[in-house]
Amino acid sequence: MxxxxxxxxxxxxTNEEATVSFFWQxxxxxxxxxxxxxxxxxxxxxxxxxxxxxxxxxxxxxCANGQCAQCLVIADGIPxxxxxxxxxxxxxxxxxxxxxxxxxxxxxxxxVEPIIPVTETEVLIIGGGPAGLSAAIxxxxxxxxxxxxxxxxxxxxxLVLQTHRFFGSTEAVFAGSRGTEIAKxxxxxxxxxxxxxxxxSAVAIGIFAExxxxxxxxxxxxxxxxxxxxxxxxxxxxxxxAFPGNTLPGIYGAGAFQTLVNRDLVKPCENLFVIGGGNVGxxxxxxxxxxxxxxxxxxxxxxxxxxYKVHMDKLRRTGVPIYTSHTVLKAIGDEHVEQVVIxxxxxxxxxxxxxxxIYDCDTVLIAVGLDPVDEFYRRAKQLGFNVHAAGDAEAIAxxxxxxxxxxxxxxxxxxxxGYDTNADTQAWQNLEDILSSRPGxxxxxxxxxxxxxxxxxxxxxxxIPCNPCSTVCPKMLIKVDHADIRNLPYYDRSxxxxxxxxxxxVAVCPGLAVSIVDFRKQDGKALVSLPFEQDPDLLQIGxxxxxxxxxxxxxxxxxxxxxxxxxxxxxxxxVVTVEVPADIATEVSGFRxxxxxxxxxxxxxxxxxxxxxxxxxxxxxxxVTAGQIRQLIREGVRDINQIKAKTKVxxxxxxxxxxxxxxKRLFQSEGVNLNEITETPIRPVFVEMPLHVLANLPTNEExxxx
Length: 706
What we know:
Helices cover 22% and strands 24% of the residues. It has 18 helices and 36 strands. Strand 3 and strand 4 form a beta hairpin. The longest helix has 18 residues, at 399-416.
């Protein structure tokens, strides 16, 4: 069977081989060591994991974060989430078709009250992302006894999925480093602290009135933790979107796509379409291009993309069409996505008839925002815990802001416990506010660009928190207001020092928004040095390469004169110099490397566009449509528990994690204020675990060896 793995990547190491043998429906396949079942199956070309018992439609991976249940499979006789269960040598995996057979239980087994271990600690931190790790560092440095748990087998949270360089402050939050690098730095700092204990593959499944938290460890052991203080840094889950076809294999959340491509080096598709123009969608589309995946297009319902302009510019320069004031109407396919239909929307976000277009694609990536994973925090508050929240569990923001959110929470917890610290949390809070601020207005630079000499050009025209270009310049010629790093950078011409074309500013810029122009030849030509982070095989000295401006306008193809890697940036970034006409040199900012796809008009044959939203599934687990829920709202129902009883919405395996917020949005779309509705309670078990563990019964394998 063909392997769908990324064999070459400009940033990531692709050397690890698949050596672990397992079986899918009796067919022998190979996985990488410690690889999750879902990624191993996708790497072997298997995207359909089962068929839903309600409507018989195909199911595959969707969130890759344990938040939904679409990737359910039967592994060695036990139903498991494929995205959270590692492959073991010899494991036999089957699709979860219908109801699985109940495991055999010996009649000789009698129930024995389990002895559940209880761990006492000063602080329990749930979540090992940037906020949780940063809090643990502050607490550990003060000698506070901490237990840090995370449901993944690696620490770092979403940082381990991020191959782009981060914005923010170089000095404070490692700006200019890639997310994967930041995760390693934070983890290394935590693991060097003797007072911090770490449990990976440890899922917090419940919070109880006895002031204890239940934890399921290593897919086999149940334990209790009794902390004096609880910190919830559980991150965020992606918002879903209701449209016909949204449950087809090939419909992913952005996190799932990044997990496959950047963490597990699986190439899940050839032709991607993106829904959502926030930072998450823009970045994920760029990651796809890095992995050699064609991006057919991106739509954003709002009149402007909500993410950083430099992220959007990276896509436009490469040739990706971006449609603002557009939305997705439906995904088309039999057992996998084959096409997506989009349309323009009016000021009320309603599709405009006659604007429908259809794109060929084999994957649709949904990136329409994040919701905090805060049920642990809310329940702990109800039960009277001394509980704090940090990172996205407190407020959705960039990872750089989450670092400071965690630092502040760590110091506040230490003070709660009576530890002395002189940390200036107010200064930290001020910086967190800057790091989490919304992008500012786009402004036109007032700098002049003379056609003489050599100097850098900053193509970023939107105020965002970022300063790496100013910190790496050996001549200190690039300036950023360090009191407020949201101010635009500029090249300082007031000094006798001159740019030496070291290329460091070009290589470090997270937005790939710095070029160096060299007019010294004075022959009507100029040299422009630009960053390049895609397939290096596209580069060759003397080769003609198409250059573009910030808005994606092409200037034609010109020869490459130099390719270099910059000292100190040995991680895939290349600085490529092209010779162009002098009159366009200051406007050239990137390369077009993908072929633009032209959409086709779409005509509805039997359905009506305005009725499509009613046909969309809101509850993936129970196959409940938006129309069913909308009808109950219109009949006057204001209690989600009643909707739940009538339709079974949120009663599936995911426990409402992917649908309850969509139900609330349906109330809002019908003009109902959320203050008028009664929410359904969220009770343990928050996350599934095998019943035999709670019941203290042996597994099939243990019975066989009796």
